[in-house]
């Protein structure tokens, strides 16, 4: 390498001018994490990238490198297509408040880098968003809420490119509107999304930035039908077990083990509901059948009635000779028997329950 080029690389490494573009200052809540994008020049595509921690470039120490394994605390990923490497700091603590450097390794004579300041706070960060990752469909729109507590101008910028500072504008042909929708929050809407709109953007308020990564995909027919059905709010259909089991079928999502466990839980719940329903149905059927049998037996047995059987009564008039000896007519009555019929079969089959009397002449 000739001397002029070596001198140029050293100077570039000291200044970082036109080599790497990143944020300048971010505020993050303790216990959380932060991802920082570092945009680099096309000539550094195949170079090693790294994150360096320290207040000065000369005295910073390596945190993570692309040619080494990631740690739980620091990780790095290089997207050579977008010419952006992303560093992530996890489990943030007060001691993590410091200057950091997005750097590219050139040679032993000097690397290139650009610094940013990371501030970790126990309270609410001065500038934050709901999510650093957001996905939208081509031709549709997305909305990002930027929450702030500091002063300064509101902006929405694409990393390394232009910014929208007014209420409306465009970035790379994508429409952008900024609306101060409430106290300490402004809303950014990107409409007419293109696949080229994918990349890193920034909420900017004063001297603070919060990076947001936007991914634009082409909407599939399945997702379009789902989106349309959600919009139309169809009339609910009756619950059927087929749909319950269909919903319990495992789906492919990030973290397959969690998906399988959720699906198994859904199946167990569905089977429990089905078992309970069958048991209740059988119990009700059994009680109705028993009630019906009891009612039939009751209707076949007439109420017991007290029946009184009288014997025939005949008057026998005595002759004149007899009347001379007796003044009155003697009448003999048979005994009256009161009998309770226990059931219908006794009445119909037995004649022995009828008592006949006999009148004798006296």
From TrEMBL:
<dbReference type="GO" id="GO:0005886">
    <property type="term" value="C:plasma membrane"/>
</dbReference>
<keyword id="KW-1133">Transmembrane helix</keyword>
<feature type="region of interest" description="Disordered">
    <location>
        <begin position="296"/>
        <end position="327"/>
    </location>
</feature>
<dbReference type="InterPro" id="IPR013783">
    <property type="entry name" value="Ig-like_fold"/>
</dbReference>
<keyword id="KW-0472">Membrane</keyword>
<feature type="domain" description="Ig-like">
    <location>
        <begin position="125"/>
        <end position="226"/>
    </location>
</feature>
<dbReference type="GO" id="GO:0004888">
    <property type="term" value="F:transmembrane signaling receptor activity"/>
</dbReference>
<protein>
    <recommendedName>
        <fullName>Ig-like domain-containing protein</fullName>
    </recommendedName>
</protein>
<dbReference type="Pfam" id="PF07686">
    <property type="entry name" value="V-set"/>
</dbReference>
<feature type="signal peptide">
    <location>
        <begin position="1"/>
        <end position="19"/>
    </location>
</feature>
<keyword id="KW-0732">Signal</keyword>
<keyword id="KW-0812">Transmembrane</keyword>
<dbReference type="InterPro" id="IPR007110">
    <property type="entry name" value="Ig-like_dom"/>
</dbReference>
<feature type="transmembrane region" description="Helical">
    <location>
        <begin position="267"/>
        <end position="288"/>
    </location>
</feature>
<dbReference type="InterPro" id="IPR036179">
    <property type="entry name" value="Ig-like_dom_sf"/>
</dbReference>
<dbReference type="InterPro" id="IPR050671">
    <property type="entry name" value="CD300_family_receptors"/>
</dbReference>
<dbReference type="InterPro" id="IPR003599">
    <property type="entry name" value="Ig_sub"/>
</dbReference>
<dbReference type="InterPro" id="IPR013106">
    <property type="entry name" value="Ig_V-set"/>
</dbReference>
